[in-house]
Every structure is written in C-alpha cells, then in structure tokens.
C-alpha cells in the first residue's frame, strides 16, 4: 500500500467487510513510516465515514439508496493518522476506550478493528461488532 500511495498527499480509503458493510477514511498526509517511535500526524481535515444501506451494492428496502455518515474532527485531540510499522498496522482516530482507534487495519489488509474515538466523535465503531474481516480495500490518491 505504501508504494501505491507514495507521493499522494491526500487519500480516500474504502473498506468492504465480509459482512457487506462499507466504511473508510480520508487522510490528509502521505502514508509513510515516520522516523522513531510511531506518532500520530495529519490534521483536522481528515475524517471517518460509514455507508449505510450500501451493503456491497444492496439497496435499502423501499429503494432509499445509500446514506453516508461522516465523522469529522471534534477538536478534542490531534490523534489523526498513524502508521505503526512495529505493530504492522495503520490507524485513524484515537482517544477511545480501551485503546480503540476509530479505524485500524492490520498490515495484511485481511482484518481490522473500529471503535468509538474522541478524535472524530463517533460513538460506535464503523461496523457491527467493531472487529471485521476485509473483502477489499481501495485507496484513491490525490495530489495537491
């Protein structure tokens, strides 16, 4: 992923879980392994989102289509974006209970976790149960 994202200062990540749920994040800095201890970076333009009713192409009953819920920066902390090479994960959003991240994906992109976090004020994870297995991840890069 890092090679594919190289040079893209902003990225939109779309995750589809095996449950059909779709969610992701918008990151405002290049995904890169920072020197020294893992530290959060980025800024308040980043956000988390969840697509409701999308379910991998399924539409809600009544033909209502998809609804996107966006969780923007609350201003409570600056725990935006993290690439932790030592633990082989990427994450967005921190300050949650029991060390939850708003979104955390393991390096093999097969599974991840999501939970409430202070950074984006989401009161629940982006998917049911907070732990998910991944069908696919797409990352769209933007150059500014």
Architecture overview:
It contains 1 helix and 9 strands. By secondary structure, the protein is mainly beta. A 9-stranded antiparallel sheet has the order 4-3-2-1-9-8-7-6-5, with no helix packed on it. A hairpin with a 4-residue loop joins strand 7 (103-106) and strand 8. The longest helix has 4 residues, at 2-5. The chain starts with a helix and ends with a strand.
Fraction of residues in β-strands: 35-45%
Rg, please?
15 Å
Please give the count of helices: 1
Largest sheet: 9 strands, antiparallel
Shape: globular
| Order of strands, widest sheet | 4-3-2-1-9-8-7-6-5
Family: Belongs to the OXR1 family.
Protein name: Oxidation resistance protein 1
InterPro entries: TLDc_dom
Subcellular location: Mitochondrion
Keywords:
globular, single chain, 1 helix, 144 residues, mainly beta
Task: Give the structure's gist in a few sentences.
By secondary structure, the protein is an all-beta fold. It is built from one helix and nine strands; from the N terminus they run H-E-E-E-E-E-E-E-E-E.
